[in-house]
Amino acid sequence: MLKVGVIGLGTVSPIHLFSINNSPYARLVAVCDIDKEKAISKCQKIKCEITPCYEDYKEMLDKEDLDVVHICLPHYLHAEVAKYALAKGVNVFCEKPVDVSYEKTKDLYDFYQAYKDRQKLGICFQNRYNKTVVKLKELIEKNKEEVFGVKGLVTWYRNMDYYKQAPWRGTLKEAGAGVIINQAIHTLDLMAFVTGKDWKSLTATMTKLMNKEVEVEDTANAFIEYEDGVNGLFIATNAYSITDSIELQVISQKEKYTIKDNRLYNKALECLAEDDKSDATKDYYGAGHEKLINKFYKAIIDDTDDYCDLASAMETMQIIQAIINSSKTNKEVKKEEIIND
Ligand SMILES: NC(=O)c1ccc[n+]([C@@H]2O[C@H](COP(=O)([O-])OP(=O)(O)OC[C@H]3O[C@@H](n4cnc5c(N)ncnc54)[C@H](O)[C@@H]3O)[C@@H](O)[C@H]2O)c1
Q1: pLDDT score of 285
Q2: What secondary structure letter does DSSP report for 246?
Q3: Contact (CB, 8 A) for 70 and 60
Q4: Neighbours of 89 (CB within 10 A)
Q5: Concatenated DSSP letters for 36-92?
Q6: What are the CA-CA distances from residue 59 to residues 30, 55, 85, 157, 273 (Å)?
Q7: Distance 100 CA to ligand 1 centre (A)
Q8: Alpha helices (H) along 88-221
Q9: pLDDT value, residue 282
Q10: What pLDDT score was predicted for residue 118?
Q11: DSSP state of 303
């Protein structure tokens, strides 16, 4: 059994604790949060044993003999904590995004090269494991669909209470951005993941429509050019009235596939797949966390690359940086500019 620790016992942590508790491959041996009371109460709610609870992540990683650590921290701490854990010989499972910028992502990527033969670094893009997404990707590959369009639409709701609950979420320094890095990152990731296309260039805008008191944007649009003539349209906002289900659409010469309300439809509106539901998490997180976490553990045990790794998260972090840069300059941004910056 893998010995697992969790750092950061905030909003997203219950699904991590639940997944560890239910995993046949792992057991929770330590948790860490600067707010110890919160950490203890989160563990109690999930009915997991209160393991040693640390306030300092370095102390936890120094004292405990962990196989895996889950990082569920504010964005600006991800790379720093991942590096410390890697240097201690621990495998890292990090919540999305990799960090606040592509520069910090690339820095972690370079650091990781010295550890990648011994340790795994997983990134939490759990929606890649939704049944609808798996089916859509499989259909595109199996039918050799000639894809020419992909659309990602995110209409969510986040008011000031969301930022007051955790002020880091509203700052550029600690979150990196708003809707594009915190909510719609999954949809951006899926647009490239299901089509299997790398991005080439994009033009984007970011704006604040609703929550003007915070630094980060609540709305963003992008026109993304992928390889092989695939065009992507991305529209995301936190200024809707509800957190609606996302829409992901892929257009090919033969078909139109749409994921909406957690179901995958074809052009004839036949339902081709439906996502599982998980009672252990918020419905808009999807039910993928548990699958992704177990896949990560299995990859460690069997020493395979069959998990969502840092390399496969790089493209999405580049796209996020390109949206930020394009919105600042009002210009198209090419992939080479981001990579060579
Ligand atoms: N995959 C998903 O669908 C999903 C959903 C929600 C959040 N997230 C991600 O999870 C991460 C955490 O988000 P959240 O909303 O749970 O944040 P949060 O603010 O609710 O929780 C963060 C926790 O980290 C603790 N913390 C802060 N600094 C610390 C430090 N130095 N050492 C130890 N603990 C520290 C805080 O006390 C808090 O309990 C973010 O990366 C976010 O993007 C992912």
Answers
A1: 63
A2: P
A3: no
A4: 13
A5: HHHHHHHHHHTT-----EES-HHHHHHHS--SEEEE-S-GGGHHHHHHHHHHTT-EE
A6: 11, 8, 11, 38, 45
A7: 13
A8: 102-112, 131-142, 160-165, 172-175, 179-182, 185-195
A9: 64
A10: 96
A11: T
Ligand 1 pocket mutation pick from 73, 75, 163, 216 by most atoms within 8 angstroms of CB: 73
Tokens 């599982």, residue located? 276
Contact 100, 173 (CB under 8 A): yes
Cβ proximity of 43 and 19 under 8 Å? no
Q: What domains, with CATH codes, occur in the chain?
A: 2-126 (3.40.50.720), 128-267+309-340 (3.30.360.10)
Which residues does 87 contact at the CB level (< 8 Å), separation at least 6?
Answer: none
CB 300: neighbour CB atoms within 10 A?
19
**Residue 268 corresponds to which tokens in the numbers above?**
């004839």
CB distance 99 to ligand 1 below 6 Å:
no
Locus of tokens 């259909």:
139
Q: Is 217 helix (H, G, I), strand (E, B) or coil?
A: coil
| DSSP notation for 240-300 | SSS-PPPEEEEEESS-EEEEETTEEE-TT--EEEE----TTS-GGG-SHHHHHHHHHHHHH
Residue 35 in contact with ligand 1 by CB distance below 6 A: yes
pLDDT in tens, 257-295: 999 999 999 999 999 999 988 766 666 666 789 999 999
150-192 pLDDT tens trace: 999 999 999 999 999 999 999 999 999 999 999 999 999 999 9
User: The tokens of 78 are what?
Assistant: 């991800």
pLDDT at 277: 82
List, for the chain, all residue ranges whose pLDDT scores fall below the cut of 70. 279-286
SS3 168: helix
Q: Residue 8 C-alpha to ligand 1 middle, in angstroms?
A: 5
- Provide the pLDDT for residue 303: 96
Nearest to 151 by CA among 256, 242, 243, 240: 256
Q: Is 156 in the pocket of ligand 1 (CB under 6 A)?
A: no
Q: Tokens at residue 68, please?
A: 């895996």
Query: Alpha-carbon distance 154 to 189, whole Å?
Result: 13
